[in-house]
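This section describes the prediction task in plain terms. A model, or a person checking by hand, is given the sequence of a single protein chain and must write out its three-dimensional structure as a string of tokens. No templates, partner chains or ligands are provided. The sample shown here is typical of the held-out split.
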Amino acid sequence: MGTTYVTKQGETIDLACWRHYGRTRDVVEAVLAANADLSLLDVVLPIGTRIVMPDITLTRPVDNLISLWD
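The expected answer:
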């Protein structure tokens, strides 16, 4: 189903994906597929543009980060 995301000033599709999903890898293409009309807009989206953010499951494991100072 997905949720609706409303853009803020100066946002691009990549930035909207980062803010919604916390990543851009493997999600920008899915967002563009769910919102074909976004390709007609400028790189910087107009304020208030509604984007359907599809439900995306993580298909590959997340790499564990190693901290040297724990």
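For orientation: The longest strand covers residues 3-6.
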